[in-house]
Records
---
Amino acid sequence: MNNEPNVCIVGSINMDLTVKTDKMPMQGETVLGDTFFTNPGGKGANQAVAAARMGANVNFIGAVGEDAFGKTLLQNLTNEGVRKTGIETIPDVSTGTATIILSDNDNRIIVAPGANNHVTPELVEKYRDLIKSSDIVLMQLEVPMETIEFTTELAETNGVPIIMNPAPFQQLPEKVLKNISYMTPNEIELAAMKEDPLFDFIQEKLVVTRGDKGVSFVENGTEQDTDGYHVHVTDTTGAGDTFNGTLAGELARGAELAEAVNVANAAAALSVSKIGAQGGMPTKQDVQRFLQ
Ligand code: ATP
């Protein structure tokens, strides 16, 4: 087993801005809302925190804007032990944000990618050594497609396996699908993927998360199902991110796929029993205790 597992994430860093309201405003209407809060987010950053809490060395290639959110988010990653050599602060650009309007029966979200759109192939090229020296690369679809194409090709050329979490869902070009080692959709993303004529390319690489039903994956050409762990559900936000970050850390450590899936399934279950995306992510000790 590899005691120094290295994960490299090329992805998004956002500040989530959430306002709770009893009444969703209609077109042209202003309403008085309830509480407002900010939380670190972005699928890339969330998955980085999950992997770091599980004890992996995590390098991040990404970008924030030159603003207060950027400073706070960088500090948050430092506190979590994520290595920031590959993160640049882009002048005159805002940090990525997700503005979330939350009411009892309706959620509305606007993502403004901001600096995440500056995670370019040139930025990845600059930090290519972080990719070459990692045991696994983990990506999502919140950075530009040309960066996804470039990074997957770079990792493949250097023999570094790639986990692709296809969220938020977009169709991927054939050259990306051919280069990745594991594809981790949830059930909704899987349904969208099945419409793709290139679905055959990834069938053998699937690790499908199925909420409380657990995970299905393909190992040596055979589909296997792992049940979900029974937990008291408090907040499912970030379950998918916890799963992906943990899976990356475990595979980087040298675990077999079935073992890595089991640990990620447990970590994700623990995360839904607590509030918050990053706030609910367990540590390695939490997961070890849970699995004893
Ligand atoms: P989210 O968008 O809420 O972060 P997702 O839609 O990306 O999640 P899911 O398939 O819903 O992904 O959940 C990911 C994993 O989290 C599941 O495969 C499972 O391991 C765990 N999980 C999610 N919900 C539950 C639950 N209610 N009980 C136990 N485990 C859960």
---
Amino acid sequence: MDYKTPFGVKIDLETGVIPGANKLVRRLSDMRGYFLDEKAYEELLKEDPIVYEVYAIEQEEKEGDLNFATTVLYPGKVGKEFFFTKGHYHAKADRAEIYCGIKGRGGMLLQTPEGEAKWIPMEPGTVVYVPPYWAHRTVNTGNEPFIFLAIYPADAGHDYGSIKEKGFSKIVIEEDGEVKVVDNPRW
Ligand code: M6P
Ligand code: ZN
């Protein structure tokens, strides 16, 4: 038997950085079409801020193995809408995932292919179970970076297609100084 070598890494709980991980940066310009307020999007695009960074330790796409990643989701809004991750189904749709809040505040929007949505608030220590078949997107509702750890099957993959086209059935906005989860008018 050719065994893989076990290892441990230390997540920097202040910055979310995992030493030795692959770093992915998503700027606002990578998210065209994702936010509702197109005028606000074009305006903020002049600065093209980083919306989030992902530090991932990933294995070959094989059944039974696991990947893990931290995400640093920056605070900000496009119009009334809080910054969020793109969101995805898994390419192998029946694969589940676990998230754990590390720093900052926000939440997760989840959705079935039929459009049933669920909002789960997250703070440091919150563990979220993402069941098979549910799309998932995280949202930063605070004013500091929202950092969390995700653990997911190595063969789960990402399916961005339908979320890119239609988004989620709910959006998370700030209105009258409050965080509100409301129906997506474009859905
Ligand atoms: C988490 C995990 C990753 C994912 C990342 C960013 O770290 O779920 O698999 O890539 O969040 O989310 P997205 O891929 O939707 O942009
Ligand atoms: Zn996932």
